[in-house]
Amino acid sequence: MNKLTNIGLEKQDAVEIADKLNELLANYHIYYQNLRGFHWNIKGIHFFQLHAKYEELYNNALTRIDALAERILTIGQKPLHTFSDYLRVSSIAEKSNLSGDRETVEATHQNLSVIVNLERDILALAAERDDEGTVALVSEDINENEKTLWMLKAFLS
Fold it and tell me: How many Cβ atoms sit within 10 Å of the Cβ of residue 113?
């Protein structure tokens, strides 16, 4: 019996990596939805700046969501696709009724920190299992997310 996926990964490795990618996918979905709410509901002196920034961030998150789902499919597994699954798997909590600049930026920083920490775990696992495609996907995202974390922190300083 062939123990390799169609791209040459060990099937068990693909299952383990996909499980972590699905966890990241779930977190990204809740992060995305939180950003949509912040975009719609932001108020205050920084409205114009944050309204635009949240739109940029949720559009970027949507692109990442699609890339993650496609990577899961590429390694021969099935991406999660229901909100009940996302809520069950995600470490990021839904945020509601936030409209202030500081509280939404703090929540965004917290949410993105969860994502980056999970990405670092996935990066290590994928590198250990010689999954270069996942390493490249996650490494690129870590770089962008770390820059965003720095900018959010600068806003809060």
Answer: 15
